[in-house]
Design brief:
Bound molecules: adenosine-5'-diphosphate
Strand order of the largest sheet: 6-7-8-3-9-10
Radius of gyration: 35 Å
Number of strands: 10
Largest sheet: 6 strands, mixed
Shape: elongated
Number of helices: 18
């Protein structure tokens, strides 16, 4: 983040903090009311005890009052304080425990809803992604900080109003010292919190890198690679050491400045002005000018000490508010991100098998080069289409466009002659069953993994039927728990871990269960050997007899049975036709086939 973005106007600071305050009042109004009452009560109790009570006792001694009179007043103060403490212990702490998570949940729900709604393309933008990570990880902290601000303001202002009233009645000049201390403290706090934010933003990318190392060493996903490739772990460790050094260097770079600001805050603003200058003034007023009594020296000194503490709390407010605001700015910018891929209204996708056409479609990720160029393709009802090409040719990107996860830069995609933008997006996506290469198996039962709706009560027969079509039946029969067997060992010690190929079959079953008319399979059998792949694909294609199927492959074992093959290279269709036609034309496809054919024949 650059300096410019760190600059915040007072209005922005106010607006961003008010957003959180309003959210808190809306989500937990009872708690917020109790918070205000509690902090005011605490201040009144301190004022009664340490200023009024103390002055009364000292003056009683200095000017002579009866012990009975003093005892009565002290008892009254004691009862007020005791009732307050009881309220604090019994009531206050309990509601706080419940309210904070409630407010945090309300903000997090907004963040998660947004994360689900925004375009996949946003994840390719590092600034957006950083904002998202920051928003999710900092939401709770900012809410707590906002409470902190409120508590400081309410208690500080109540305490100060009481103290100021006392100063003005007893000795108005005293007030000047307190005010001077306050402004000095405000200034040093502002400088300190700006510096802290600067340090934190410089440390942020480094800490993310440290977090990555951490994940690599503890996550299951990396465990195999790390054992087999000692060089990788050595490199990562080296990287970790270097990053740690850089983190320490950031702290070192700002250490002197930080020390200076802290000296200004802790010594000059507080101790020097209030403890030394003010005390000297009070003694001078009592001993030389005789404008105040000796009792008042002690009481005013004590009241100034508590006021100093209140001022310290209030003067911290701007600094904290500024930091909250800087974070909220990013959280807001995440929440304000508008999805560009939005749903059209009131146009459902036809239930019958449909034609999908791509017309002159070109696409690039952000500002990068085009990864798809002028693609023309037709998927007729019930046809079996293969898209082949080497890694990086643009096959998966093409599927992402068809699924409307990204929008083409040029050209259009039509379903039954209507641009897919004009359909209800959820309906459109639901009616096309897609299995991506990086499908996920959830920590749930086999059945739930097929339904993908943990609340749905799908019929066992339908689920088994889908599993049969995807070739999972044999494995299902070997599971003692059948459809109710738990998958993954994430939460269940006896959970079943599927092999790559088995997982793929399960993922394919989801599509059969959902009953889509068009099935898209992105290298669904890459984890199988060529022969097994061929058999699986043949049985899948038979099962999908009355559906359109688009399958992606960089292996050609199944392409023989496709009605039409599109060969993709560097984002362009370089050849198209049936297996026989493409072999006859003896181009790139024929060459790829000859290289791989030995595996299949
Ligand atoms: P294939 O499926 O044929 O292996 P892809 O469609 O995955 O190819 O990728 C096509 C090209 O687009 C590759 O050069 C890849 O690096 C690039 N690419 C893929 N995803 C992204 C992304 N999110 N951001 C930028 N470039 C991407």
């Amino acid at each position: 983040m650059n300096e410019k973005k760190n600059k915040q106007s007072l209005k922005q600071v106010w607006r961003n903090n008010m957003y959180l305050t309003k959210l808190s009042f809306k989500t937990a109004p009872g708690y917020m009311f109790a918070l205000i009452v509690e902090f005011m009560r605490n201040e009144i109790s301190i004022f009664l005890e340490f200023t009024i009570g103390f002055a009364f006792v000292l003056e009683s001694v200095e000017f002579g009052r009866s012990f009975g009179e003093v005892a009565k007043v002290l008892l009254l103060i004691f009862v007020f304080v005791a009732v307050g403490l009881f309220y604090n212990a019994v009531f206050w702490n309990k509601i706080r425990e419940r309210a904070v998570p409630k407010i945090e949940r309300s903000l997090k729900e907004q963040l998660y809803a947004k994360a689900k709604e925004i375009d996949l393309g946003c994840y390719d933008n590092p600034e957006f992604y950083n904002n998202y990570i920051l928003a999710v990880s900092e939401a709770g902290n900012q809410i707590n900080r906002n409470f902190d601000i409120m508590s400081k303001l309410v208690s500080g202002l109540t305490g100060l109003t009481l103290a100021s009233g006392y100063f003005i009645v007893k000795d108005p000049r005293s007030f000047v010292f307190v005010a001077a201390s306050f402004f000095m403290m405000m200034l040093s706090n502002k400088l300190l919190s700006k510096l802290n934010f600067k340090i934190r933003t410089e440390r942020n990318p480094l800490e993310r890198k440290l977090g990555y190392t951490n994940r690599v060493f503890y996550l299951n996903d990396y465990a195999k690679e790390m054992r087999l490739n000692t060089e990788v772990s050595r490199e990562i460790m080296k990287d970790y050491d270097e990053t740690l050094d850089k983190t320490l260097a950031v702290d070192k770079k700002y250490a002197k400045r930080r020390l200076g600001f802290e000296f200004l805050k802790n010594y000059v603003a507080q101790d020097f002005i209030i403890d030394i200058l003010f005390l000297a003034y009070l003694v001078y007023s009592a001993a030389v000018l005789r404008t105040i009594s000796y009792s008042q020296v002690a009481v005013l000194r004590g009241t100034a000490a508590t006021a100093k503490w209140r001022l310290g709390r209030i003067s911290e407010v701007y600094g904290i508010a500024l930091e909250v605001s800087l974070y909220m700015e990013r959280i807001q910018s995440f929440l304000d991100t508008e999805a560009e891929i939005v749903s059209a209204e009131n146009r459902a996708v036809p239930e019958t098998p449909t034609v999908i056409e791509l017309k002159n479609v070109s696409f690039s990720y952000g500002e990068n080069d085009y990864v798809l160029k002028n693609i023309n393709m037709t998927i007729n009802p019930l046809s079996k289409i293969a898209i082949v090409g080497y890694n990086g040719a643009g096959k998966t990107t093409l599927i992402k466009l068809i699924m409307r996860l990204y929008e083409p830069n040029e050209g259009e995609i039509l379903l039954d002659g209507v641009n897919i933008k004009d359909y209800e997006i959820e309906d459109y996506r639901r009616k096309i069953g897609t299995v991506f290469q990086d499908f996920k198996i959830f920590a749930a039962t086999v059945k739930e993994n097929v339904l993908l709706d943990f609340a749905e009560n799908g019929s066992d027969a339908d689920v088994c039927n889908a599993l049969e079509k995807s070739g999972f039946s044999e494995r299902l029969n070997s599971l003692s728990g059948g459809l109710e067997s738990n998958l993954t060992t994430e939460f269940e010690e006896n959970g079943v871990n599927l092999s790559g190929g088995e997982g793929q079959k399960l993922a394919v079953a989801r599509v059969f269960y959902a009953g889509a008319n068009l099935i898209i399979l992105d290298e669904p059998s890459s984890a199988l050997d060529p022969i097994a792949e061929y058999h699986l694909n043949c049985s899948m294609l038979t099962a999908a007899e009355n559906k359109s199927v688009l399958f992606i492959s960089h292996r050609l074992s199944t392409t023989r049975i496709a009605d039409k093959i599109y060969m993709l290279e560097d984002g362009e269709i370089i050849e198209e036709g049936s297996h026989g036609e493409l072999l006859k034309s003896n181009g790139k496809y024929a060459e790829m086939w000859r290289v791989q054919a030995g595996q299949y024949l």
